Amino acid sequence: MGVKKLLAAGLTTAFAVVSAAIGSSSPAIAGDVGPAGTAYGCGYPQVCFYKTQANWTARDWTAAYQDITGSYQNLSSGAYGSYYVYNSRNDDGALLHYTNGYTYCLHPSTYVNNSTNPTGFWTVDKIRIMDSPTCYRS
Q1: For 104, phi and psi rounded to 5 degrees?
Q2: What is the DSSP letter of 107?
Q3: How far is residue 19's CA from residue 138's CA, in Å, rounded to a whole number?
Q4: Is the model's pLDDT at 26 over the cut of 80?
Q5: In the predicted model, is pLDDT for residue 19 greater than 90?
Q6: Nearest Cα to 61, choosing from 53, 49, 52?
């Protein structure tokens, strides 16, 4: 087996293990897109929400938040229940709250796909942008 094929097989196995672990404890697979900027049409320093798959594909966010807050903000209709959320911030986490009571820390320069779960199970309804990449609450 060539080096490229061996590397691809190893990465596929590693991804499967990580996906299985994430799938049971988070709303969906999160992706790291590298340094913040204007990825997915989302300007720095915003957390952008994409209501539908079509919005995500077109890089057309439907709502954006950027203020660090001490508590949750209820989401607007353009953000509530979004399929995707992208955090363009460099070093601030976005603590997402879901209608089922669960929370998920969206790390800097990453996105989360909420649409791969059963309908209504992972419906994002609140956000708290925190001065911590891991959403640590002091």
Answers
A1: -145, 130
A2: -
A3: 30
A4: no
A5: no
A6: 49
Give the start-to-end residue ranges of the domains of the chain: 28-130
Using DSSP, how many helices (H) and how many strands (E) does the chain show? 2, 9
SS3 1: coil
Distance CA 49, CA 96 (A): 11
Structure tokens at 127: 């956000």
Rounded to whole angstroms, how far apart are CA atoms 19 and 1?
25
Report the alpha-carbon distance of residue 80 to residue 98 in Å, rounded: 9
d(CA 93, CA 88): 10
CATH topology of domain 28-130: Gamma-B Crystallin; domain 1 (2.60.20)
Strand partners, 103: 97
β 103-106/93-98 pair status: antiparallel
Average pLDDT over residues 94-122: 86
Q: Which single residue is written with the structure tokens 């590298």?
A: 34
**What is the distance between the alpha carbons of residues 37 and 26, in angstroms, rounded to a whole number?**
25
